[in-house]
Sequence to fold (208 residues):
Amino acid sequence: MELFADRAEAGRRLAERLLDAHDPVVLALPRGGVAVAAPIARRLGVPLDVLVTRKIGYPQQPELGVGAVAEGGEPVFDRTLLRRLGMTPESVADVVEQERRELARRVRVYRGDRPLPALAGREVIVVDDGLATGGTARAALRAVAAAGPARVTLAVPVGALGTVESLRHEADEVVALLTPVDFRAVGQWYVHFEQLSDADVLDLLGQV
Fold:
């Protein structure tokens, strides 16, 4: 299966599948999703903004996500995983609070005092650079849905097949260019998959 050269190329290819969108609001999940969304917004001729999300990690193993939270939304938990770990949402309340503080910091960095664009009655395209477990995308989609949009599309270059299918219940449409059965990590489907900084995100937002 062909790899994407980088996030920008993935975004350009993804944009061709989104040309029927009617004056959409394009929201990228930072940081990686912004590099995919920038060429989409340019191709569609619409503004780009961010929807900040944070993973909620298992306290003993923070890289293991037991949920996620998006700005403007409530925490969304993987309740099956929590039960398997013998935990409840209340067990990770301190982690949730910590991630909310970091989320607020990133919102200030990326958007300053400017609020999210008005989403009520609008078509919204949520963009990320790939879907592994889909936790942050699910939290983002639910936060967007709560704002009353007319239609929501989740657009990603690549995603685990099971995750893509599960998220079809959270959006009106999920556009994924690649859904490989041997998916192990998002980065394996890109030739260049550098980590982005806050400065990179701000630069990309300034280019659209």
Notes: The first helix runs from residue 7 to 15.
